[in-house]
Design a protein that fits this description.
The chain is an alpha/beta fold. It has a domain of 161 residues: D-Maltodextrin-Binding Protein, domain 2, CATH 3.40.190. Helices cover 33% and strands 16% of the residues. It contains eight helices and nine strands. The strands form three sheets. The chain has a four-stranded mixed sheet. Helix 1 packs across helix 5. The longest helix is centred in the first third of the chain and has 17 residues.
Length: 249
């Protein structure tokens, strides 16, 4: 195993083992050589380090990009021999496909939870299952719906690094006007559709403003490196969850 490959392995183990920063996972086919250069970092890199790992990330703007750079700098402080070079690209999916096809994939990638199946089916991602085992962590150490989003065909290809929480608002006055119980908002998608149809039939208008208080949050896996799972709604809860890292530790 090359020095860079060993460094990537230790990097991934560290990312898996650290709760809030556990969104980094390897990218690249196990059958292909590890990336030693790839595309140059478009925006910034962490200072120091005897080995520099390229991280491809969607460009979500200055605030987000700066935050990720700070996270990378903190990682390098704790691991002085590993530097992170961030490549923030608005067209990350095309770049990832191009680099992978050329045999020079990034060492890791952060992205929306969308094209896991496509890249995994092409053997373009590293199976993280053995790396997870080496850290001593298991599925139960993570928020399981988010963790499961990184699994394809029984193998783990991504570590969760964030989640979107979509708040549903509803207008109690509208509920009363159409004969719905204002104290019983929808708690499933089936109920949401049913209530929407009732409002539509009575008022002929359904808008997002018709739906006032946060009663329901929908969690979906998003933002893992190395492609998280399909971008699907996962969990419905009645009250906002407390803020916590993607790993329970």
């Amino acid at each position: 195993m090359t020095t860079n490959a060993m460094t990537r392995r230790r990097f991934l183990q560290a990312m898996v083992a650290t709760g809030g920063a556990s969104f980094l996972a390897a990218c690249g086919s196990a059958a292909s050589p590890p990336a030693t250069g790839g595309a140059p970092a478009a925006d910034t890199g962490s200072a120091g380090g005897s080995v520099t790992l390229d991280i491809l990330n969607e460009n979500w703007g200055e605030i987000y990009n700066n935050l990720m750079t700070v996270i990378g700098d903190e990682f390098t402080k704790e691991n002085p021999d590993i530097a992170l070079a961030w490549n923030f690209d608005p067209d990350w999916s095309t770049k990832l496909a191009t680099l992978t096809a050329a045999g020079t994939p990034p060492d890791a990638t952060v992205m929306r939870a969308a094209p896991l199946t496509t890249f995994a089916a092409k053997n373009s991602l590293t199976d993280l299952t053995p790396l997870l085992a080496e850290t001593g962590l298991t599925r139960d150490d993570f928020i399981t719906p988010l963790f499961d989003g990184g699994i394809f065909d029984g193998k783990l290809y991504a570590i969760p690094g964030g989640a979107d929480y979509i708040a549903l608002y509803y207008n109690k006055d509208v509920y009363r006007a159409v004969g719905l119980d204002p104290e019983q908002p929808p708690t499933t998608f089936a109920e949401l559709i049913e209530h929407s149809k009732a409002i539509l039939q009575k008022t002929r208008a359904v808008t997002s403003s018709a739906l006032g208080t946060i009663q329901q949050l929908v969690s979906s896996p998003t933002g893992p490196i190395s492609l998280a799972g399909r971008y699907t709604m996962r969990t419905i809860v009645r009250s906002p969850p407390t803020t916590r890292p993607m790993s329970k530790r």
